[in-house]
Amino acid sequence: MTANFYIVSLGPGHPELITIQALRILAQSDVILVQNRSESNEWKGSVAHKILTGIIDKCSEWFEDCKFGSVKKIEARLKAVYTPMNYSPQAYSHLIDEIVKACTEHKSVAYVTLGDAALFSSAYYLFDILKEKYQKIADKTEVIAGISSISYASALVKKPLCLGDTKLEVIPMHSDELKSTKVYMRLHKGDDLRDFEADDLYYFENLGFENEIYNKGKPGIIKNYLTVLIDFAKSKLPRFYKKKD
Ligand SMILES: C[S@@+](CC[C@H](N)C(=O)[O-])C[C@H]1O[C@@H](n2cnc3c(N)ncnc32)[C@H](O)[C@@H]1O
Fold first, then answer.
1. Which string of DSSP letters, residue by residue, matches 42-101?
2. How confident is the model at residue 10 (pLDDT cuts 50, 70, 90)?
3. 231 bridge partner residues
4. Does residue 43 line the site of ligand 1, with CB under 6 A?
């Protein structure tokens, strides 16, 4: 049997900015894998651990007796996984070994990531390897959405990331030859998108509601204001690449 494997977005750091869903998954996981810079079990240089410590301290005060279990107990289930931040095959293969081991020994395993997994999370490099080599774990993987650092930054200064005639670009520094993921919002009911040209297009309707649907392909004629389209960029980067200095 393979465990349920969760990639859990932690939010940008403020303990109130983890989602209830993420907190529930963490409270119900048997083990929570956290990247760490030290080869011993001592925590060193782990931003994810720092965020988790704040969340456990604050949320255990607020929700100790909540229905999904003890938040305080999360601490004892954290497992440091040594990860040199060099994007090397070794760094990822060690993480993968730890995920595979945990998924064999437990029923529910979490791996945490900063902000929202949708933005530059190495969890997706891991997920690629799982899909290639450990299909059973990949099939039982769920990604838990979170609040990104840029959503929080925008709220802090009370400035929208995009509005009206502006659009948002998220650009990784020190990179060239970038491909863009394109997000289409503010569609109109009746828009005819049967001939819409895109590479890897998905449409999402009524996200988060009981009538939520999502599919790959052209959306046809838009039925609903609550529709968003995402044309996902296909990265040409090799999975393991060296960071530029
Ligand atoms: C590997 S990316 C991960 C982004 C993350 N998934 C998110 O949703 O924000 C790391 C970069 O995100 C930004 N970042 C993430 N958390 C942040 C925070 N708490 N404060 C400021 N910047 C942050 C920084 O630019 C950092 O170099």
1. S--S-HHHHHHHHHHHHHHHHHTT-TT--SGGGGGGEEEEE--SS--HHHHHHHHHHHHH
2. very high
3. 182, 201
4. no
Same domain, 11 and 74: yes
Question: Distance between CA atoms of 29 and 99, rounded to whole angstroms?
Answer: 13
| Domain shared by 54 and 104, yes or no | yes
Nearest CA to ligand 1 atom 19: 12
Buried b / exposed e over 7-36, threshold 16 CB at 10 Å, is: bbbbbbbebebbbebbbbbbbebebbbbbb
Q: Which domain holds residue 209?
A: 171-245
pTM of the model: 0.92
For residue 8, the CA-to-ligand 1 centroid distance in Å is 15
Instruction: Look up residue 61 and give its amino acid.
Output: E
pLDDT above 90: percentage of residues in the chain: 74
Which of 114, 124, 156 has most ligand 1 atoms within 8 Å of CB, for mutation? 114
**Within the chain, what is the greatest distance between any pair of CA atoms?**
59
Residue 156 domain flag = no
Nearest protein CA to atom 10 of ligand 1, as residue: 120
Whether residue 13 is found in the same domain as residue 122: yes
Residue 53 and residue 129 share a domain: yes
